Amino acid sequence: MARLSLFGRLTNIQMILHTFLHGQKVGTDDAGNVYYKGKPRRGRSRERRWVMYAGAPEASAVPPEWHGWLHHQTNTVPSGDSAYRKDWQKPHQPNMTGTKDAYVPPPLKGQPRAETTGDYTPWKPQDS
Description:
Layout: H1 6-22, E1 24-28, E2 34-38, E3 48-52, H2 64-70
């Protein structure tokens, strides 16, 4: 577990306090992230929207339909039976780059590369 600096700890406490005092819960996604809205900042007209992550604060953990709501692309709050998700779509997965679950192509894992099909001819310098 990473150690947080004093500033990091205060920032988390400030966000929790701000959410408790000014946030109105809007919904929760399948990963357990909780979404809030609040009054607009002074001089602005759009409401503020934010997320409290269930685990580590990782922006790629926000599903696409909630991303659209957070960034004011839609005012429709996603629900469990959301029209955004289709039966054929895979469940949302956060960006795994830099983790042990990251995608690595087979040749980099030491596995042989798949044979090319007959429609591919490699370029050779003497052909030109």
